[in-house]
Amino acid sequence: EAERWAVEWDEKALAPDFVKPTFFGIPISLKECIPLEGYDTTRGFVQDIGKPSKSDSVLIQQIKHLGFIPYVQTNVPQSLLAYSCSNPVYGTTNTPGDRSRTSGGSSGGEAALLAADGSIIGIGGDVGGSIRIPCHFTGMAGIKPSSLRFSHRGNAGAVPGRPLINANEGPMTKDIQTSVDFLKEVWSNNWITENDPYVPPVVWNDEMYRKGNKFRVGYYIDDGWFTPVPAIQRAVLEAKTYLEAAGHTVVPFHPPRVPQMMRHYVRAVCVDGGQFVYNKLSSDIIDPSLYGQMLIFLVPVWIQRLLAYPVEKFFPRLANMMRAMTLSTVELRETYAEIEQYRGEVVLITPKHDIPAKLFSAVGYTALFNLLDFGAGVVNVTKVNESDEQKLRDEYPGTDLWYRTAKNACKDSGGYPVNVQVAAPPYREEIVLRLLRDIEIAVTGK
């Protein structure tokens, strides 16, 4: 069908008055959960095979309008609420060149395809790091815009009816300049608003993006919740140096109350104590990577709360998460109020993720910006080197199960990519892109 769409564009181009759209004939890959008319959007659930989308989402309508040709759907983890990439419909996607390492999730198929040179641009989705984590694991670039710079109409999220914490679509590319070129055109006019009146008429701000702008940027290498491995810390400090060389002011910053906000994030994302996801999984073939998640959903909320007390002595972070689930509308209201209060304005350069790619996920460094509804993007800065591995062996803490898991997972990761993340408040994605581009220029020289 992609070939048929290409032929149709070629036939239109024969008309003497035809004006080629900006992205005429360029192939684009799509995360499987993005509705494309006539194709399944299973999100990895066997029960949703054979239920094709009846129409394109607004985003797909726009990219077709701009001349793109969708040519492939890419893999996702079952339920979309995982940071690996495996499901019983399509199987497992790993990092190209090393099947022992995940390409991340939930846009892991997109990242793997880009890293394998199978696509030049793809559209991913992100509700807790699902664009940024796969890009980090594979060395790609990408950005999660704030929630209302794209339309959500027609999209298939992990948990329908969830307020405040939205899954945001965004471009994933081999370099951040390609993402800039894409967004500059997509946001060049009010096409999105005209087709979805709930999207504010915010167009591309070239003055905000202009090279030479100087910004005050906060940075941190440890959020007080989970200490990143040495390679990640080094990458942030290198990015700090690059931004200072470009004329930006970079100052230390520490995000407040991260453990509390992570608990609110999990509560808001699951919204119903995990009941929707549990119901979907319990009537499906469950991917082995989700057995642990399913086990949590099987334990009643009140028992999780009770068990949190003895667990806290030995695993305080786990106990914090055990208090996250709720079925109380009062607690949900309080959570939404806390999130609204927490949202503020600051531009940050942060660790992208706690560790390079290998069989382990903790999402505090990404999910925080979904909670804040900031625009957040990533770009590659460096690769894991021998010094990083030595510091991991000698200096990285092993004081609890999570740290020991991270330490073990990152063994022998030399040569693997390390990204950094830049975030800014809603409707300031151009600032994020400017800073990412300045870092990219410093790293690549182009």
What is the SS-derived class?
A: alpha/beta
Give the number of helices. Answer: 18
- Helix amount: 25-40%
Strand order in the largest sheet: 2-1-7-9-8-13-14-12-10-11
Q: What top-tier CATH class fits best?
A: Alpha Beta
Q: What is the second-level CATH architecture?
A: Alpha-Beta Complex
N- to C-terminal separation?
36 Å
Mean pLDDT: 92
Ranges where pLDDT stays below 50 over 5 or more residues in a row are 355-361
What does the overall shape look like? globular
SS elements, strand count = 14
Largest β sheet strand count, sense and barrel closure: 10 strands, mixed
CATH topology: Amidase signature (AS) enzymes
| Percent strand | 15-25%
CATH superfamily: Amidase signature (AS) domain
Gyration radius, rounded: 21 Å
How many domains, as an integer? 1
Please summarize what this structure is.
The chain is of the alpha/beta class and 446 residues long. It has 18 helices and 14 strands.
Explain what the structure shows.
The structure is a single chain. By secondary structure, the chain is an alpha/beta fold. It has one domain (21-258, 339-444): Amidase signature (AS) domain (Amidase signature (AS) enzymes), CATH 3.90.1300.10. The protein contains 18 helices and 14 strands. A 10-stranded mixed beta sheet has the order 2-1-7-9-8-13-14-12-10-11, sandwiched between helices. Strands 3-4 form a two-stranded antiparallel ribbon. Strands 5-6 form a two-stranded antiparallel ribbon. Strand 3 (86-87) and strand 4 form a beta hairpin. Helix 9 (258-270) crosses helix 14 and helix 9 crosses helix 15. The protein is globular. The chain starts with a helix and ends with a helix. Residues 355-361 have low confidence and may be disordered.
